[in-house]
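Appendix B, example 12.
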Amino acid sequence: MCILGGMNRKERSAEQRVRWVYAAQSAAESRDRYDEWAGRYEQDLLDTYGYRLPSTIAEHFLRWVSPPATVLDAGVGTGLVGECLAERGFTDLVGLDNSPAMLEEAARKGLYRSLHEMTLGEPLAFESGAFDAVISAGTFTKGHAPASGLVELARVTRAGGRVVVGIRRDIVDSHGFAGIIDELESAGVWEFEDRSDAFVAMEKLESDVLVETWCFRVRRG
């Protein structure tokens, strides 16, 4: 029987599961908790809390990127972003995540050309300039991917391509995102293109947590 933080997982409420996963303190701990949560992830976030982060970031992504672009979904989860993009004609999708169980859920949807177990913040096993664009929703937040993960996302995007990421607004400065963004711009790796108005990702649970979508144009692959 699996015990999650002293409580049987069947006894946990949706809110307890969400907060338990988001309280992870390392990439390894996050992976293990997402592995436990994978089977209930969409039920908890979509059905219970009206999670709108993947669809909102996907809509922003469509302002700059069109099919038949080759797109990396960084932090693919169960493939919610892929569903949004597939509905708009994208067919060349590649995903990565550090949770094997989440990757299994994404694979069942049959939307991705390939799926890879990788961790944002570590070197990615892709060639430089391999993708026309990168999208990342729900990964650059507390207890998840570090700001340093942006460096590799820029590297694997071709010159002229876009990196579109959602970043929780209250950690842009405190968790080093502003510094990494500025460093990449100063080095000529990318240029800032746009930032969305802040929006609530999960109104029914975290109405005070705001996310912004950032778009960068890569200057060299």
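The two ends are 48 Å apart (CA to CA). The chain has a mean pLDDT of 91.
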